[in-house]
Amino acid sequence: MNYSELESNRFELNVFRGDIIKQIKASKIKQVIEQNQVDILIFRIPAENQYQLYQLHALGYEILVADTLVYYECDLKKRPKTPFRNPDIQFELAKTTDKKILENLTDDIFKDYTNHYFSNPNFEKQAITDGYKEWAMSHLTEKPNYQNNDKLLWIIRQDGDNVGFTACKIEKPNDVFNGILNGIASYARRGGIYEDMIRFVCHYFEERGFSKMRISTQIQNYAVQKVWNRNRFFLTNAYLTIHINSMLRQKNQEN
Fold it and tell me: What is the pLDDT of residues 150-173, one digit of tens each?
């Protein structure tokens, strides 16, 4: 469990992050919180280990199960080879010059998206959206190429409009790529563009020798999971995102 500079600066709180914890040890968590005067501690546990959560109540802090994150995988060789529903759709690798386009899309797509940050009342909502912007921007490069960059982002266009984007991260040694961040503009949804996007990235990486795609979302995001199921993605993992709102540094600053 370590200090998260990015989130601490974004939310003006002392935020710590942990990896996936398979065995909750309340005494160790208490030690980390008190020694570092943590405001909010964030970590995940496998959903099958939710029976361990009762141990956290002994800490005396506010505990949130902030979301349930589900992971899916697709064997690219076994996926259906289905044509686009929107034959006029275009995918263009984004460069640093596309920053403004990406900012506008992110504002629209994620302004009300209910992830684990959204569940915590201590996080300001505009700062959450700004976090998505920062995350998306980290995929921009001057000369995008899958051979030289492990992160790529495509702007999706239709009839001259920017209707969405998709960002992927490559695990080069494993021939696996991850769908990291994506979305369709609010006015362009329910027309099959999202499904075309999934088919595009699968085809793009399969042609370049990749074997598997991974992707994740919050459990309540039912629409995208229907798309994944239609395209032979299978549920592989589920994790609960836990927030401990100890707010120790904030309380000390107020006293």
Answer: 999 999 999 989 999 999 999 877
Could you tell me how far CA 183 lies from the centroid of its own chain?
A: 11
What is the spatial distance between Cα 34 and Cα 136, in angstroms, rounded to a whole number?
34
Looking up tokens 């266009």 gives 157
CA separation for the pair 183, 153 (Å, rounded): 12
User: 210, 241, 254: which is closest to 117 by C-alpha?
Assistant: 241
For the question of whether the overall pTM of this predicted structure is more than 0.85, the answer is yes
The pLDDT tens digits for 107-137 are 999 988 889 999 999 999 999 999 999 999 9
Residue corresponding to tokens 């503009």: 185
Spatial contact of 212 and 76, defined as CB atoms under 8 Å apart: yes
CA distance 139 to 88: 25
In angstroms, rounded to a whole number, what is the distance separating the alpha carbons of residues 111 and 31? 35
